[in-house]
Amino acid sequence: MSVATVHAFAAPAPKAPLEHTTIPRRALGEHDVLIEIRYAGICHSDIHQIREDWGEAIFPMVPGHEIAGVITEVGSGVTRHAVGDRAGVGCFVDSCRDCDNCRAGLEQYCTGSGMLMTYNATGSDGEPTYGGYSTHIVVDENYSVRIPEGITLDEAAPLLCAGITLYSPLAHWKTGPGTRVAIVGMGGLGHMGVKIAHAMGAEVTVLSQSLRKQEDGLRFGAAHFHATGDPATFERLAGSFDLIVNTVSANLDMDAYLGLLRTGGTLVNVGAPENPVPVNMFSLMFGRKHLAGSAIGGIRETQEMLDFCALHGIGADIEVISADGINDAYERVVAGDVRYRFVIDTSTLAAAATP
């Protein structure tokens, strides 16, 4: 391997600002590829994990699981990729490979060792995993995907989390012509849901707190845009939707949203609120409705998503930043001041090193 220590940005301790550092990358194994990272998306989950909102974490932490770049070296046994290929890495970099879910291409639901997260995890070698806020990453070829030429690398990076997180439930619940789909929230996740559901042929409605992003929603492909801050919205739209995808992490009134479903409809959650959410069982029983959850997607489905997005000209709406803007970007994400995903130009990582 030609790269052993690489530039990165890391949080040295919980809630600490990110700063320049260097990290080791493992030697290239037989089935590994070395990816020169060009762009890395900033996901809100990066912030949650640095702040230990989801439990004790591993520090120093190099976040980033929306990774897009170019393969510069391959192991002797690699068959899926070649030097020069555009490649991406998402939320996990390994799994047991042998459980029923892994064999079915549902590695994100691995019941063996569990999926190995791209960062804030410990690998089988006992070493911590470091994510995409870095210049290079070494990953097993089976856990990287090909980025088609129809998407620019900067707009492709957020697809590795935000894109697949929305594509997976939309595909699983058979979104297509004749279906009526509502996307709750239009942030980094939600704006991808609008674009993908529209490309699948659905009639798409955005349900957002206000009409502030209405113009964007219609531009992305929504046919309708409603403010959930207006109680009359829930009366007007009662029984309207086949599928509702909730992208927000706040505690919503699930009963109110279940009331928007048609008979047999599904409300699927991809956002993760910190506290339990109460549900009145009658909201499910009357109308044979379903309350579900979904988490990212497997490698096969992630590739399918990327190919679909390339075919339909779909990329994330992004704001590209340099490494020295990461901490400010975090504050803006928390404040909801981004349309709709920050993406780090990782070529700026080295320049951000302290002189």
TrEMBL record:
<keyword id="KW-0560">Oxidoreductase</keyword>
<dbReference type="Pfam" id="PF00107">
    <property type="entry name" value="ADH_zinc_N"/>
</dbReference>
<dbReference type="InterPro" id="IPR011032">
    <property type="entry name" value="GroES-like_sf"/>
</dbReference>
<keyword id="KW-0862">Zinc</keyword>
<dbReference type="Pfam" id="PF08240">
    <property type="entry name" value="ADH_N"/>
</dbReference>
<comment type="similarity">
    <text>Belongs to the zinc-containing alcohol dehydrogenase family.</text>
</comment>
<dbReference type="InterPro" id="IPR013154">
    <property type="entry name" value="ADH-like_N"/>
</dbReference>
<dbReference type="InterPro" id="IPR020843">
    <property type="entry name" value="ER"/>
</dbReference>
<keyword id="KW-0479">Metal-binding</keyword>
<dbReference type="InterPro" id="IPR013149">
    <property type="entry name" value="ADH-like_C"/>
</dbReference>
<dbReference type="InterPro" id="IPR047109">
    <property type="entry name" value="CAD-like"/>
</dbReference>
<feature type="domain" description="Enoyl reductase (ER)">
    <location>
        <begin position="16"/>
        <end position="344"/>
    </location>
</feature>
<dbReference type="InterPro" id="IPR036291">
    <property type="entry name" value="NAD(P)-bd_dom_sf"/>
</dbReference>
<protein>
    <recommendedName>
        <fullName>alcohol dehydrogenase (NADP(+))</fullName>
        <ecNumber>1.1.1.2</ecNumber>
    </recommendedName>
</protein>
<dbReference type="InterPro" id="IPR002328">
    <property type="entry name" value="ADH_Zn_CS"/>
</dbReference>
